[in-house]
Write a structure and sequence with these properties.
heterodimer; A: 359 residues; alpha+beta; six-stranded mixed β-sheet; 31% strand; elongated; B: mainly alpha; 14 helices
């Protein structure tokens, strides 16, 4: 158990490419930290730097009060679960889990106890003598987890561990990982590109983009108060609707009260309602229904904004507004609807999207 | 699976049978020749059924030896060939797997250069560099020794390339998992890379054993003592006579014996090879 602290961590590759541009993160003891971002944002690189698989160009990585920049991965007291599991194909499940302990000269009877404990927790008891190729994807995933558990590390590192599983199994394993981490009370850093996975697992969510941190915080807080338009559109599915404020000034009640530096307006799909009257200070958008997605419990309406003075003209998809309605609602395609949202549900951002403004 | 068509099957069988006859007939004749006395073989009227001298010929070949020029029994020659071929095969595998390991997994200055130099040696087989190689071996006083027979032949660009290709298909995560599991480079090599390479090792062993077994020019150059000769040289020397009858029946018996070890290696290793191919998964 340990804190993990990253202080102004940078990664510059020999070619001069700066993959990580100065990151500060503090993960408390026993917390579950999720790094999330689109591919190429540097999240895996950052995790691999914590693991010691990539060198740190500058800054400090601190695990449990010890600067580990120059320490070998094996001596950092971490365990890692890889995306493709990286099980040793020629070793049995038992040996896969025992290998790291043997290299550390843990006595054989101690190894046996630990491996059998892990196998019991992960329900792998009957498979200890099998080879990885005789296991299903979910079972391999468990073995990879088991290999991490038996080490009893200070920190678990997960590099997109669920992305090779099918959707159903992914959800089941997601819950299991979270339960396991709570039970063992071990600090964890988890990398994913799946915002839903990130939201559900994290104590601390770190949203990354282009080698920088966009926002750090509690997942709900990030969802409710995204700091930038990137976070706003990345966290949440379907994403937050973003539109230039000038395009909707006419529809915005009390537009004068909007700060002058505000450039973009955001509204989450679920914050809309159908209705005729615009709440005070709220917004009312006239939409032409272009497409409908029935998900069961809810319905997503993709509507084209009808701008003032260009009533029936076709509007580009960039102007699409997504509205979430209850599953029973089903407006016809081509019809007009009016979607309204109260003032408190609006998000304002600066024109470059880098700054959140008070509504 | 191909559709079952009788005519096509028949043609295929005829072609296969023809092929087998063409390849196997000389071997059969060699075997027949090894069962007659010298006079019958030389007469040119060799029957196609085995004669009565089989045991006698093989006994002489294995335990006594042939002509005046080749008085070592085949047993010694076989042993020499065996040591040489095994030495070459094992040595080649050892050197090439290590050099491939270095080239693929370590970042050192002139790594690419080292690789290309190894690659270029593909174009320089023993025959091309025979004089300098002979000079070196002679200066090292390795003439007429097993070391002299083996060492110059074990550096192998082919093996290095083969292992390099294989190592590049091994996922990087395995190396990283090993590092986190506390295995150093040699431990990773021994515990993970080598077990995964077994099929490649088996394939290379078969190829290199036969390569070593069939060496002719190099053993001919550096061995002068009869007791150090390999069987391939022995067969040739058995037929060198001055005025007496060349003992073809002994040479043929020796040739048949000389075929057995490579055949055994192929048969035995092929099973391992195929088994490995079916079972291995990266």
């Amino acid at each position: 158990m340990a804190n993990v602290t990253l202080r102004n961590v940078r990664k510059i590759y020999p070619g001069g490419f700066e993959a990580i541009k100065g990151i500060d993160v503090e993960v408390g003891d026993g917390q579950f930290c999720v790094l999330v971002g689109p591919s190429g944002c540097g999240k895996s690189t950052l995790l691999r730097m914590v693991a010691g698989l990539e060198t740190v160009s500058s800054g400090e990585i601190d695990i449990g009060g010890r600067i580990v920049n120059a320490i070998e991965p094996a001596d950092r007291d971490i365990a890692m679960v890889f995306q493709n599991y990286a099980l040793y194909p020629h070793m049995s499940v038992y040996n896969n889990m025992a290998y790291g302990l043997r290299n550390r000269r843990v006595p054989e009877n101690e190894i046996k106890t630990r491996v059998e404990d892990a196998a019991r927790i992960l329900e792998l008891g009957t498979m200890l003598q099998r080879k990885p190729r005789q296991l299903s994807g979910g079972q391999r995933q468990r073995v990879a987890m088991g290999r991490a558990i038996v080490r009893q590390p200070k920190v678990f590192l997960f590099d997109e561990p669920l992305s090779n599983l099918d959707a159903k199994l992914r959800i089941a394993m997601r819950v299991e990982i979270r339960k396991l981490q709570r039970r063992l009370n071990t600090t964890a850093i988890y990398v994913t590109h799946d915002q839903l996975e990130a939201m559900t697992l994290a104590d601390i969510l770190v949203v990354m983009n282009g080698g920088r941190v966009e926002q750090i915080g509690n997942p709900l807080e990030i969802y409710q108060k995204p700091a930038t338009t990137f976070v706003a559109s990345f966290i949440g599915a379907p994403p937050m609707n973003l539109m230039p404020i000038d395009a909707v000034r006419a529809q915005l009640h009390g537009a004068d009260a909007v700060p002058a530096e505000a450039g973009q307006l955001g509204i989450r799909p679920e914050d809309f309602e159908l209705g005729d009257t615009v709440p005070t200070g709220g917004i009312g958008l006239d939409l032409r229904v272009d497409a409908i997605e029935h998900v069961g419990a809810e319905t997503y309406v993709y509507g084209a904004r009808q701008e003032v003075g260009q009533n029936d003209s076709l509007t580009a998809t960039a102007n699409d507004v997504i509205v979430r309605l209850p599953g029973t609602a089903a407006p016809d395609i081509g019809t007009r609807i009016r979607a309204v949202a109260p003032r408190s549900r609006l998000h304002l951002f600066s024109a470059d999207g880098r700054q959140r403004l008070a509504v | 699976m191909v559709e079952h068509r009788p005519l096509r099957d028949l043609v295929a069988y005829v072609v296969l049978a023809l092929g087998i006859v063409i390849f196997a007939f000389p071997v059969y004749v060699a075997f027949i020749a090894s069962t007659y006395d010298a006079a019958t073989v030389v007469s040119g009227n060799l029957p196609l059924t085995p004669g009565h001298n089989l045991l006698q010929n093989y006994y002489r070949a294995v335990f006594v030896g042939g002509s005046r020029f080749m008085n070592q029994p085949v047993g010694v020659l076989l042993a020499n060939s065996f040591v040489t071929a095994i030495g070459i095969a094992v040595g080649k595998i050892f050197i090439s797997i290590l050099s491939a390991f270095a080239i693929v997994y370590f970042r050192f200055p002139f790594r690419k250069t080292a690789f290309w130099i190894i690659f270029i040696t593909l174009m320089l087989p023993v025959e091309v560099r025979i004089y300098p190689t002979y000079k070196i071996v002679a200066d090292l006083r390795l003439l007429d020794t097993y070391a002299g027979l083996i060492l110059p032949l074990i550096a192998s660009a082919t093996g290095t390339l083969l292992f390099r290709q294989f190592f590049m298909t091994v996922p990087d995560e395995l190396l990283e998992a090993s590092r986190i599991d506390g295995a150093g480079p040699l431990r990773f090599f021994w515990d993970t890379l080598l077990p995964l390479s077994m099929t490649t090792v088996a394939a290379l062993f078969v190829i290199q054993f036969i390569y070593g077994w069939n060496q002719y020019l190099w053993p001919l150059l550096i061995t002068t003592k009869d007791s150090m000769q390999t069987i391939v040289i022995g067969i040739k020397k058995m037929l060198s006579t001055t005025d007496e009858l060349a003992e073809w029946q002994l040479a043929m018996a020796t040739a048949v014996l000389a075929m057995l070890p490579p055949v055994a290696v192929v048969v035995f290793m092929q099973r391992l090879f195929v088994k490995g191919l079916v079972e291995t998964e990266k």
